[in-house]
Amino acid sequence: MKGIRKLADHLGISIGTVSRALNNRPDVSEKTRERVLKAAAQLGYEPDQSGRSLRQGTTSAIGFVIESARDASDSVDNFFLGVFDGVQHVLNRHHLDLIILPCAADDDPLDFIKRTVARRMVDALIISGTRRRDERIAYLAQSKVPFITLGRSETPGPYPWIDLDFEGVANISVDRLVSAGHRRIAVALPNNDINLGFVYLESYKAALARHNIPFDPSLVVRTMSSEQGGYQFGHEILGMADRPTAVMASYELMTIGLYRRLHEAGLMPGRDIAVISFRESPLSRFLSPPLTCFRLSLRDLGSALGVSLLASMPQYEDAYPQGVTHRIWPMELVPGESDNHSQTGSAKR
Amino acid sequence: MKGIRKLADHLGISIGTVSRALNNRPDVSEKTRERVLKAAAQLGYEPDQSGRSLRQGTTSAIGFVIESARDASDSVDNFFLGVFDGVQHVLNRHHLDLIILPCAADDDPLDFIKRTVARRMVDALIISGTRRRDERIAYLAQSKVPFITLGRSETPGPYPWIDLDFEGVANISVDRLVSAGHRRIAVALPNNDINLGFVYLESYKAALARHNIPFDPSLVVRTMSSEQGGYQFGHEILGMADRPTAVMASYELMTIGLYRRLHEAGLMPGRDIAVISFRESPLSRFLSPPLTCFRLSLRDLGSALGVSLLASMPQYEDAYPQGVTHRIWPMELVPGESDNHSQTGSAKR
DNA sequence: CTGAAAGCGCTTACAG
DNA sequence: CTGAAAGCGCTTACAG
């Protein structure tokens, strides 16, 4: 005999009353509620989650799927940890737990999601690393499990999403570089079908068009979203016949390898070539010269994910009546010295 | 009507038989088993985890607790993601799921563990970032929940643990530096009570003693386990009256800030001062000059954690009969150029 | 306001 | 080899 039964016997009342007291139902006398709460705290009683889940049909858990070792996640580093904290902060207000579900490298991401849903392990899901077309989204949409994606996708459906402002970043980057006189601007993109690569490229193209600069496909380099990928990017640039005078990296980790390769070639970012990166990380400030990049609050992003997800869950839509939301998360320019290099006569700004 | 009931009705047999077929019990005819398995696959049936858990008293889930935003975890970056993959690989062989439980920054780590255990969310736990004395360990030990720690602790008990070989790393680092003629070797340690800081310091002291070099407490700098902390470490070194000629960093991220501060002062690692870092990361190779540091396989470490944990779980001790294991995980020296700087006459090696 | 009872979806002795 | 039934720990209509 254990659990709520033990607690009830200990107090000499029925398990029903104990349950009601614990769950803050109105139909319990204040005196009884206090006795129950006190005894529960004393004995360290917490309701068994399986019992609750089975009865209520909900698990009180929200799953955040990450792919622990796939190409798309090379740069996960401390990105997700900040986001988790924000999500959790919102969920905890509703006594929901955030659990991270790592999809193994040798597991199929779609199967993984299917199993998770079918076994009813969580009440809702957050998925990340969205692909151009993402079958996980198609599956979740028809499964009726509430979910939100961190990242857009071309896969249609009325699901909520939040995505970083790749358009804004690409636009501002091109604008800055063009106004410093650059016309040959190379760009490093992930070499897979993750959606952000497409968005970034399109925005880059559009920005060039605004400045009447013809798009040169040879300036688009697809590479790994890692230090190694950035190194390779640097290598390819250096080998180009008509070498670009400025580069844009769509993943922060790429910048490390890029710096290294440029250094080996005796080129210094900001002096010999202009470099603009993507997300600011603690590293950015400690690179030499400091990186021009873009800032966001991971915690706020996480909170927003939590709120938007709750808004799409029937149980919480009253508390968050905004409905299904789509949101482009703004990023703030952090000017460094890596893009000081100018192609105009007056090099110094 | 849903779940196993629906599947049973669809096949015209009892739910008991369906369950037995699904769970590979011997007492089911081969024909029936095949029919059931086929129908389950077709209908995408997976047993509801709550129902199973309630009945069996186990959840088939192993929890890995990380603290998403505490000082101790500044350098989590991609360390854990590699480890997760290894753990999962082992657990999946036994149809166990790995779920990551992030303890929020504003939550108490002990309370978090207590809730997790009391609610019976997982069958066993992996905890990390062990402190010199760790009350989580004391609690888990008396709670009877199987667990393993990634990191040792002074808190006693017969629990299994795996820890990185801080002794070996500190020893080899000091040996290398001393044999290059260094006698003033500064060391950067975390400024909290995480156990690895104590182990590293003790080993550093012992190694100095072996070389008959007196221990100078002013060469021990306590700082944040981050880029910023490394920067501060560099700053303190530069301000020392009798400046050390070599430094050891106990956390890989510290090195970034250290390099930066040295660079600002016009000092180059490997030329003007010797630097040895801790764990090799993708970054190490892309720093200039390349870092002397230590390598380990995160995936293998994760697998070992999984195996040792299973060995301590009654259900699996037959498959892993090694009992409670304590293991120091070896790390392999990766010589770079950051410690080339020599204090002896013949500077080049 | 409280208690007794039903039932969530499973697994597993127990009969046959 | 299969079916009928009990029961895991909860929550929640339903009576009183």
Task: Reconstruct the topology from this structure.
The structure is a homodimer of 349-residue chains.
Chain A: H1 4-11, H2 15-22, H3 30-43, H4 49-56, E1 61-67, H5 79-92, E2 97-103, H6 109-118, E3 124-128, H7 135-143, E4 147-150, E5 161-164, H8 166-179, E6 185-190, H9 195-210, E7 220-223, H10 227-238, E8 246-249, H11 254-264, E9 274-279, H12 282-286, E10 292-295, H13 298-311, E11 326-329, E12 332-334
Parallel strand pairs in A: 1-2, 1-3, 3-4, 4-5, 5-11, 6-7, 6-8, 8-9, 9-10
Antiparallel strand pairs in A: 10-12
The first copy, chain A, binds a DNA duplex (16 and 16 nucleotides) through residues 2-5, 13-17, 19-20, 23, 25, 27-29, 32, 47-57, 120.
Could you give a quick summary of the protein structure above?
2 copies of one chain form a homodimer. With 349 residues, chain A is of the alpha/beta class.
List its traits:
homodimer, 349 residues, alpha/beta, 434 Repressor (Amino-terminal Domain), Rossmann fold, 3 domains, 6-stranded mixed sheet, DNA-binding
Please characterize this protein's 3D structure.
- 2 copies of one chain form a homodimer.
- The first copy, chain A, is an alpha/beta fold.
- Chain A has 3 domains: 4-47, lambda repressor-like DNA-binding domains (434 Repressor (Amino-terminal Domain)), CATH 1.10.260.40; 61-159 and 297-330, Rossmann fold, CATH 3.40.50; 166-295, Rossmann fold.
- The first copy, chain A, has 13 helices and 12 strands.
- The first copy, chain A, has helices spanning 4-11, 15-22, 30-43, 49-56, 79-92, 109-118, 135-143, 166-179, 195-210, 227-238, 254-264, 282-286, 298-311; strands at 61-67, 97-103, 124-128, 147-150, 161-164, 185-190, 220-223, 246-249, 274-279, 292-295, 326-329, 332-334.
- In chain A, the strands form 2 sheets. Chain A has a 6-stranded parallel beta sheet, sandwiched between helices. Chain A has a 6-stranded mixed beta sheet with strand order 7-6-8-9-10-12, sandwiched between helices.
- In chain A, strand 3, helix 7 and strand 4 (147-150) form a beta-alpha-beta unit.
- In chain A, helix 1 crosses helix 2 (15-22) and helix 2 packs across helix 3.
- Chain A is elongated and about 85 Å long.
- Chains A and B meet through helix 4, helix 5, strand 2, helix 6 and helix 10 of A and helix 4, helix 5, strand 2, helix 6 and helix 10 of B.
- Chain A binds a DNA duplex (16 and 16 nucleotides) through helix 2 and helix 4.
